[in-house]
Specification:
With 297 residues, this protein is mainly alpha-helical. The chain has one domain. It is built from ten helices and no strands. Helix 1 crosses helix 7 and helix 2 runs antiparallel to helix 5. The protein is globular.
Length: 297
């Protein structure tokens, strides 16, 4: 089984969190939406271009979302009473509603994956147990810092999904639209956790330590081990051709990681804010294209 533990880092603060007034810097409205997707268009577990490695990687990501999104909500809501900006308070509530519905939709598709032979529920229970331990061993400040880091990573992935939809061309339509809708909302609320951290914690040194740990160790290792676990339970023997296909998909010319590297690194820039990269026009474009899937449209 994968592990998502990391060394306990110092929770000491390096500045007065109230020394500079903080408030929401969101550039677009955060809209909690209800969506409907029919996942009956999968014809088997190896759905991505006959490549089990890439197929399992996306299943592993989906499997991590229910527990992960719940932790994101909890870690932000801990600080709700300390938020003074009314706009940010309202955005926290909208953020929580969006994340809760993401969990619901991924639980639905994960059940479908399990019917195809994957064991996402086992992974979900593992992640829930690991994150529960953090509630007792990590400070609220560290939990929020880790959420800020994960939110930046998902926002960068969301930007890539909307900018390069060709990377999901091999998805069944329902799964592709699920991730595109998820991407829209991840960008809409991409600065909420960051702005809460700035107002209520403000320790940039801790934030940068957590970001390096999460992006260099926890996230890639957890995704890799989860994918291996799912393929083992699927009883599928991976070929070298599939491994090379995964490597090219991630690190080759035009690969996902290759394309996202620049935005990932921006997080460590002095004075960084998630909306330094304005992708609001991209969101508006995809909101129009996916409107038929939104409840009430």
């Amino acid at each position: 089984m994968p592990t998502i533990n990391s060394p306990v880092l110092s929770d000491s603060f390096n500045l007065n969190k109230h020394s500079v007034p903080r408030q929401s810097r969101s550039k677009i409205e955060i809209v909690p939406r209800k969506v409907t997707f029919d996942f009956s268009d999968f014809d088997g577990p190896i759905y991505y271009d006959n490549n089990s490695c890439i197929s399992a990687m996306w299943v592993a990501l989906s499997a991590s979302f229910p527990a992960g999104e719940a932790e994101f909500i909890k870690s932000v809501m801990i600080f709700e009473s300390e938020i003074n900006d009314p706009k940010l308070k309202a955005e926290v509530r909208d953020f929580a509603q969006q994340e809760a519905h993401h969990s619901l939709q991924h639980r639905r598709v994960n059940k479908m994956f399990d019917s195809l032979g994957y064991q996402t529920e086992r992974l979900n229970l593992f992640f829930k147990d690991e994150l529960k331990k953090r509630e007792h061993t990590w400070s609220p400040e560290k939990r929020l810092a880790r959420t800020v880091c994960a939110e930046h990573v998902t926002a960068v992935m969301a930007n890539h999904a909307l900018s390069h939809p060709e990377h999901m061309a091999h998805f069944p339509e329902s799964f592709r639209n699920l991730f595109l809708w998820h991407a829209i909302e991840e960008i809409e609320h991409k600065s909420v956790a960051f702005d809460v951290y700035q107002e209520c914690v403000g320790d940039i040194k801790l934030l940068h330590k957590e970001y390096k740990t999460f992006t260099r160790f926890e996230f890639p290792y957890s995704t890799w081990m989860s994918s291996r676990y799912l393929l083992k339970k699927l009883d599928h023997k991976v070929t070298w051709k599939e491994r090379k296909g995964l490597w090219d998909n991630l690190y080759g010319k035009g690969g996902m990681i290759s394309d996202m590297k620049g935005l990932y690194k921006q997080f460590l820039n002095k004075g960084f804010h998630p909306w330094d990269h304005d992708d609001s026009a991209l969101v508006e474009q995809w909101k129009e294209r996916l409107a038929p899937y939104f409840a009430g449209n």
